[in-house]
Amino acid sequence: LDILIPYPIHLEILVQTLRYWVKDASSLHLLRFFLYGYHNWNSLITSKESFSFFSKRNQ
């Protein structure tokens, strides 16, 4: 699947859009679970990196 998204998209809008392409509800719930997990994991990593960057800079 080769889809280019030019700007960040809200995860729920992405899942609702994919609902029209995929008719299996259980796979959509699984996709939503992984997307939110991936989003939360990336935001956790990003916040740690920015925190460590600023703490090193202040020393």
UniProtKB/TrEMBL annotation:
<protein>
    <submittedName>
        <fullName>Maturase K</fullName>
    </submittedName>
</protein>
<keyword id="KW-0150">Chloroplast</keyword>
<comment type="similarity">
    <text>Belongs to the intron maturase 2 family. MatK subfamily.</text>
</comment>
<dbReference type="InterPro" id="IPR002866">
    <property type="entry name" value="Maturase_MatK"/>
</dbReference>
<comment type="function">
    <text>Usually encoded in the trnK tRNA gene intron. Probably assists in splicing its own and other chloroplast group II introns.</text>
</comment>
<keyword id="KW-0934">Plastid</keyword>
<dbReference type="Pfam" id="PF01824">
    <property type="entry name" value="MatK_N"/>
</dbReference>
<dbReference type="InterPro" id="IPR024942">
    <property type="entry name" value="Maturase_MatK_N"/>
</dbReference>
<dbReference type="GO" id="GO:0006397">
    <property type="term" value="P:mRNA processing"/>
</dbReference>
<dbReference type="GO" id="GO:0009507">
    <property type="term" value="C:chloroplast"/>
</dbReference>
<feature type="domain" description="Maturase MatK N-terminal">
    <location>
        <begin position="1"/>
        <end position="59"/>
    </location>
</feature>
<keyword id="KW-0507">mRNA processing</keyword>
